[in-house]
């Protein structure tokens, strides 16, 4: 079991083909790699995974490392053929994705409902 820092909490639930990870806290330099580790573990444990839902409503702060981790997760899910859904994005995350030109990457017209 991974011990998370107090500034981040991940709650994971899923089946063989769908995983939901609820993110609460900061996705920043100190914490973001824990989300990547959890996603990597889920992708490895479920080779037939079709959908990965990251529920972001509880995300507080996101820095460049948090954004980098989200982009890395996008690449890893694409490699496995898993659709990535960034749901319940708070305004600060939405603004960061917009300012960095990555919002369309995560929510492009070809991918409805925030799926990649």
Structure notes:
The chain is α/β, with parallel strands linked by helices and 116 residues long. The chain is built from four helices and four strands. It has helices at 32-45, 64-80, 91-99, 103-107, and strands at 8-14, 18-27, 51-62, 83-87. The protein has a four-stranded mixed sheet with strand order 1-2-3-4. α1 packs parallel to α2 (64-80). Mean pLDDT is 89; it is low at 109-114.
Q: Which strands sit side by side, in order, in the main sheet?
A: 1-2-3-4
Helix content: 25-40%
Terminal CA distance reads 29 Å
| Beta strand count | 4
Structural class: alpha/beta
Low-confidence stretches: 109-114
* Order of secondary-structure elements: EEHEHEHH
Descriptive terms for the model:
116 residues; alpha/beta; 4-stranded mixed β-sheet; 4 helices; disordered C terminus
What's this model, at a glance?
This protein has helices at residues 32-45, 64-80, 91-99, 103-107, and strands at residues 8-14, 18-27, 51-62, 83-87.
Q: How is this fold's topology laid out?
A:
Layout: E1 8-14, E2 18-27, H1 32-45, E3 51-62, H2 64-80, E4 83-87, H3 91-99, H4 103-107
Parallel strand pairs: 2-3, 3-4
Antiparallel strand pairs: 1-2
Helix pairs in contact: 1-2
């Amino acid at each position: 079991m991974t011990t998370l820092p107090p500034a981040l909490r991940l709650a994971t639930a899923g089946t063989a083909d769908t995983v939901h990870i609820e993110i609460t806290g900061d996705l920043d330099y100190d914490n973001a790699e824990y989300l990547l580790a959890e996603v990597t573990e889920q992708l490895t444990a479920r080779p037939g995974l079709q959908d990965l839902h990251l529920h972001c409503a509880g995300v507080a702060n996101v820095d460049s490392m948090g954004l980098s981790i989200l982009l890395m997760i996008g690449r890893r899910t694409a490699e496995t053929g898993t659709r990535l859904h960034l749901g319940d994005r708070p305004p600060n995350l939405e603004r960061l994705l917009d300012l960095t030109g990555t919002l369309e990457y995560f929510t492009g017209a070809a991918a409805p409902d925030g799926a990649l």
